[in-house]
Every structure is written in structure tokens, then in C-alpha cells.
Amino acid sequence: MPESIRIGDYVHAPATSGLEATGYAKPGEFELSDFLTRWDVLHNDALQVLPERIHPTAQIHPTAIIGDDVIIGPGVRVHEFSTVRKQSVLAAGVSIGFGCEVTHSFVGENTVLGHQVGIGHSIIGTNAHLSANLVIAAISLWNYDMRTPVKEIVLHGPGDEPPYRCATPRFGGLIGDHVQTGSMITLGPGIAVGRHSTIAASVCMGSSIVPADSVVRSSTPKLVIERRRI
Fold first, then answer.
1. What single string gives the DSSP state of each residue in 161-172?
2. Which residues contact 207 (CB under 8 A, 6 or more apart)?
3. How far is it, in rounded angstroms, from Cα 99 to Cα 81?
4. pTM for the full model?
5. Cα–Cα 20 to 30 A to 198, which of 47, 84, 212, 217?
6. Domain spans of the chain?
7. Which residues of 117-131 are buried (b: 16+ CB within 10 A; e: fewer)?
8. DSSP readout, 104-127?
9. What local confidence, expressed as pLDDT, does residue 198 receive?
10. Better-predicted residue by pLDDT, 110 or 161
11. Contact 77, 54 (CB under 8 A)
């Protein structure tokens, strides 16, 4: 298990989203746990320096709900009955499908969320494609009361190494650039998926680190992770 997880090893910095003067401009400088503990402050600072919170070229359906502290970049599309809230960022070119919920998450440039996708407290890279009915959970089921979580999210790797500690009870996932998924998937709480990986339909996994260029598929009752061949 790595002692360090650098966000820049998973996601590229936004290049055309107007975030150059904010903490979102250089994700490679952040250790994951450090970013998670500082996220609220970084977002509030970004709101102070951005000239406009929602870019005028963004297309937001009248039935969509956008929180007062959400940042939306150029060319973003938010479709019917979707909710984007609680200090989320949609970088340039993002597409949010029908009936999605995005909570306290960063969605990288040109990433697509299919219909009825729910993500919370997550960082999604560029040019990713998350298909319909995918959920990234952010709170451990094993809290005494999930409304007030206290159980720290950790990531486990193979073997008996100590887990990576995220220093927060609320973390969904770090999903790398160009990751693609099938439908009906549950991830988290706590997952890191390396760049150019593919997750097949019906996978349910959390508290894990998936290397770059992997294929993850479910072979009940065993979860199989293998090297991607293309």
C-alpha cells in the first residue's frame, strides 16, 4: 500500500475551465488526504477569485437544481432533473445526464456522467465516462449513525500492508483520467482508480486501489482485477 497517493498521478489539471487562479489548477501538488482536509477552504477561496460562478456558455436545463456554491465551466451541459450541489465543480465540457446527483465533487474536463449517476465527495478526472446507474458512496455503512459519520475512510491494497488513511469520514473516490465504466455499479466509500481503467457492469467495490490500465469485472463471488490489454 503506498504511503502517498498524489492526485496528479490520477487526474490532469483543468486547462480550459478558467480555474487557473484557484487551488483546482494544480492537483498534482496535492496529497489526497491533504486535499480532502483542505477542500472546503480551497473551494471557498476559488469562489472569491472567480469573476463568474457559472460560465455563460453552460447549458442548464430548467428542471436542474444548481447549488449557490457550485462552479460550472464553459460548455457544460446539465440535463433534466439533475442536482449539482455542495461545493461541486463541473469543469469545461462536462455533461451531466438525466436525473444525476453530484455532491461536493470535482468533475474533470469533458467527462460524461450518464443517466441517474450519483457521486459524492469524489474527484473525477478528464475524459472519463461513467455510465448509467452508477453510484460512488462517500460514507461508511459501519458508522453508528450515518447522518453524523465519524469512521475514517481508508483504502486497502493487496497483502497485509497498512491501509492508506484519508483523514476524513466522507470520501467517495478518486477516478482517473479516461476511466470508463459499465452500468449498475457501486463504488466506495474510498476507492482510487488509475488512468485508462475499465470497470465492467455490476461491480461493487470500495476501500480499494485499482492500478492504471486495469480491467475490473465481477465474477461472483470473487472480484477479479486484471491488466488491461488494449
1. PPPEE-SSS---
2. 153, 154, 155, 156, 163, 188, 189, 190, 191
3. 5
4. 0.93
5. 84
6. 7-227
7. bbbbbbbbbbbbebb
8. S-EE-TT-EE-TT-EEES-EE-TT
9. 97
10. 110
11. no
Q: How far apart are CA 138 and CA 25, in angstroms?
A: 24
Query: H/E element holding 46?
Result: helix 32-49
| Cell representation of residue 85 | 450541489
- The answer to whether residues 165 and 33 touch, using CB atoms and an 8 Å cutoff, is yes
Cα diameter, the chain: 51
Strands 112-113 and 154-155: unpaired
- The cell numbers describing 217, all together, are 469485472
Q: Which amino acid is at 187?
A: L
pLDDT at 226 over 80: no
The closest of 90, 89, 65, 92 to 79, measured between CA atoms, is: 65
Task: Tell me the fold of 7-227.
Answer: UDP N-Acetylglucosamine Acyltransferase; domain 1 (2.160.10)
Contact 227, 209 (CB under 8 A): no
Q: How far is CA 31 from the centre of its chain?
A: 15
